[in-house]
Write a structure and sequence with these properties.
single chain; alpha+beta; four-stranded antiparallel beta sheet
Length: 406
């Protein structure tokens, strides 16, 4: 199975077209490891760029043109991603918007598809995920936030935590308890909640790590619902059958969509090892450093290939089994190893934000703190290992099937 991307002359011509178009916009976006360096004007530029990409079909380049996708090949999508990253543009999409686009195509009515999917694919709106609750952790099915039917509306009460970033999206995609007396897994629904609706309160939640990695943020949030009215039209999937929708949501969050982004922190590490000298020689020439670097290169290449494989499988509609949670498990289990190797090679410099000693403009220090988020967000190691086992049929007579993303 060959999922490595190669670039033809036609694709290189497309690369020039994409690069020239992006440069013509004169984006001049801030790129800093300090979230305080970003202001509302920077965010407005990103939103404008998101909409411009959406208008060309390049925000969801391989998706159905009927709903605003580009209808392009996987190779074209990789080119677009590379050209955007090359210009240090990150954080254009929240996972919630991608989940709405995917789940609505699977579970939505034709009317819902025509309303919600183009809105997301064209970049006209985006969405947070509203999943985790104070008592639930990774147990998504334990949702206590209630959504009780009242005519053509749901009345939503409760709270979600560890949500989003400092910039509020237009919507939140929420799993809710729509039948408090119902059986577990058969009492849940999925709602698209306008975050500007009366009764929604958003409170900042400040943590050790900022959020979003490259697209750093000052905080996450707690979202409170106090008698929020949400139309039944905003429910994706049937009433009390939200666990089926959750399967698609979790497949996306657990690595099923894959990853084609470059590891820019690895490139920064290499630069630092070449710049720092020890006994008159670049640190990268030290035998112990080279041994650690070799181990890290092998780890990162495995991670890259897992991500590329999953992206190729998802975009070419290959049947997936354990591949999504396998990537997620690898990412989470190797994050501490990765950061420890960085510390081993750079010493206390890896933990510095002092302007006198800081390396890579603070991105490596930011990565150290965000490592804890990487390990726990979206389901911990035990969750990923359990899903892999079920997909392989270990401990059960019937294998668990992966959810289809379209």
């Amino acid at each position: 199975m060959d999922f490595e991307v190669t670039f033809s002359s036609e694709l290189e011509a497309f690369r020039k077209e994409v690069g020239d178009w992006i440069d013509s916009l004169h984006l001049d976006l801030a790129h800093s490891s300090n979230p305080n360096d970003y202001d509302d004007a920077d965010w407005d530029k990103k939103v404008a760029f998101r909409k411009a990409l959406g208008a060309k079909g390049w925000l969801y380049p391989t998706s159905n043109p009927k709903y605003g996708g580009g209808g392009l090949s996987v190779e074209h999508a990789v080119v677009i991603s590379q050209e955007i990253e090359k210009r240090n543009i990150f954080g254009l999409l929240e996972l919630g918007g991608r989940v709405i686009a995917a789940t609505t195509q699977v579970f939505g009515s034709e009317e819902q598809k025509n309303h919600w999917v183009p809105m997301m694919m064209k970049g006209e709106a985006d969405s947070w995920q509203l999943l985790t609750e104070p008592q639930g952790g990774s147990d998504l099915a334990s949702a206590k936030t209630t959504a009780i039917l009242d005519g053509d509306d749901y009345i939503v009460n409760g709270q979600k935590i560890f949500v989003g970033s400092q910039h509020v999206m237009e919507y939140g995609f929420a799993i809710v308890n729509s039948d408090p007396q119902g059986a577990r897994h058969r009492n849940l629904s999925y709602l698209i909640v306008p975050l500007s609706a009366p009764g929604v309160t958003i409170q900042p939640l400040y943590l050790l790590g900022t959020t979003g990695g490259e697209a750093s943020s000052q905080h996450k949030n707690i979202v409170f619902f106090d008698d929020v009215r949400v139309p039944t039209f905003n429910r994706i999937g049937a009433h009390n059958e939200g666990w089926k929708v959750a399967s698609v949501n979790m497949e996306l969050e657990h690595g099923g969509a894959g990853n084609i982004s470059e590891d820019r922190n690895f490139a920064r590490l290499i630069d630092c090892l070449n710049e720092i000298t020890w006994d008159g020689k670049p640190l990268v020439q030290d035998p112990d450093v080279r041994e650690s670097l070799g181990e890290l290169i092998a780890e990162r290449e495995t991670h890259r290939l897992f991500g590329l494989r999953n992206y190729w499988m998802a975009q070419t509609k290959q049947r997936m089994e354990h591949e999504g949670p396998q990537l997620s498990y690898w990412t989470k289990s190797r994050a501490p190893f990765y950061m420890q190797k960085v510390q081993d090679m750079l010493g206390h410099f890896a933990l510095q934000r002092d302007p006198k000693y800081v390396l890579a403009r603070g991105f490596l220090e930011l990565a150290q703190r965000n490592m804890f988020v990487t390990v726990h967000a979206g389901g911990g190691l035990n969750i990923q290992a359990t899903i892999v086992a079920r997909r392989l049929g270990i401990g059960r007579n019937v294998r668990e099937e992966a959810a289809s993303l379209e």
